[in-house]
C-alpha cells in the first residue's frame, strides 16, 4: 500500500459529519459553531442567501433560524427540500411554534434560548437518524412536531386542530407500518423505544440504540 493510499484512507476514517449553522446573529452563530467544533465540521452562514451558497450534498445536519431578513428560514428550508439535499434540519428559533409547522419539512424544532447540552444532543440525534430508512425518519419528524405542539398548546387547542389530528393519524399509520416491519422485535422493547404519543410522558421520544439493527 502506498503512502498516498494510506493517507487517503486515514482522512476518510477521520472525516467528521458536516453541520451547517444558519443564524443571522453572528455572535450566536459563532457560539453554536464553537460548541460543535470539537466533533463536527461546522459551516457558518449569517443569512439565508449565504446558507444556500454553503449548501451541498456533504451537509449532514442543518441548524436553521426561522426569522432572518432577506431570505427567511422557512424559505431556506423549502429550497433545501427542493434541491433534494439529504440533510436533517432542526429549526433553532425564537418563533413560538404554531400549527403551521405541520406542513414544514424540518426534522426537529428548538425554541431559543437553547443550552449547549440540548444543541449537542439534537445534532447527535439528527445525525444518527440518517442511519434509518425514509419511513423511520418521517416517524421521528412527525412525532417531534407532535411533541413540540403538545408542549406549547393546551389540550383544547390540540383537540380543535385539524392539523394536529392529521399528525396523529400519520403517526399511527407509520407506527403500524414500522411495527409490521420489525417482526421479532419485542413489544415491550418497541413500546419502550418511543414515548407515549398522547403527550403525557415527558421521556425522550426514542432511544436510537434500540434501532441500530433496523
From TrEMBL:
Bias kind Acidic residues: ranges: 198-214
Gene3D superfamilies: 3.40.50.2300
One matching Pfam family: Response_reg
Modified residues (4-aspartylphosphate): 65
Single annotated GO MF: DNA binding
Keywords attached to this entry: DNA-binding, Phosphoprotein, Transcription, Transcription regulation, Two-component regulatory system
One record GO biological process: phosphorelay signal transduction system
UniProt entry tagged with the keyword Protein transport: no
Record domain Response regulatory: where: 18-127
Family matches, as InterPro entries: CheY-like_superfamily (IPR011006), HalX_domain (IPR013971), Sig_transdc_resp-reg_receiver (IPR001789), WalR-like (IPR039420)
Region (Disordered): 178-214
Name recorded for this polypeptide: HalX domain-containing protein
Amino acid at each position: 500500500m502506498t503512502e498516498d493510499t494510506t493517507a487517503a484512507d486515514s482522512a476518510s476514517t477521520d472525516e467528521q459529519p458536516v453541520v451547517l449553522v444558519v443564524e443571522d446573529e453572528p455572535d450566536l452563530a459563532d457560539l453554536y459553531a464553537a460548541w460543535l467544533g470539537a466533533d463536527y465540521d461546522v459551516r457558518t452562514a449569517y443569512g439565508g442567501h449565504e446558507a444556500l451558497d454553503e449548501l451541498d450534498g456533504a451537509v449532514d445536519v442543518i441548524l436553521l433560524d426561522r426569522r432572518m431578513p432577506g431570505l427567511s428560514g422557512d424559505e431556506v428550508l423549502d429550497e433545501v427540500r427542493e434541491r433534494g439535499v439529504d440533510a436533517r434540519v432542526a429549526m433553532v428559533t425564537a418563533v413560538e411554534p404554531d400549527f403551521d409547522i405541520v406542513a414544514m419539512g424540518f426534522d426537529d424544532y428548538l425554541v431559543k434560548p437553547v443550552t449547549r447540552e440540548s444543541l449537542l444532543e439534537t445534532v447527535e440525534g439528527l445525525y444518527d437518524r440518517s442511519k434509518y430508512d425514509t419511513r423511520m425518519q418521517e416517524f421521528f419528524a412527525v412525532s417531534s412536531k407532535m411533541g413540540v405542539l403538545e408542549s406549547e398548546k393546551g389540550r383544547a387547542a390540540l383537540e380543535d386542530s385539524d392539523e394536529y389530528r392529521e399528525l396523529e393519524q400519520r403517526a399511527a399509520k407509520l407506527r403500524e407500518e414500522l411495527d409490521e416491519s420489525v417482526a421479532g422485535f419485542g413489544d415491550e422493547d418497541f413500546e419502550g423505544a418511543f414515548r407515549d404519543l398522547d403527550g403525557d410522558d415527558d421521556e425522550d421520544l426514542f432511544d436510537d440504540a434500540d434501532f441500530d439493527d433496523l
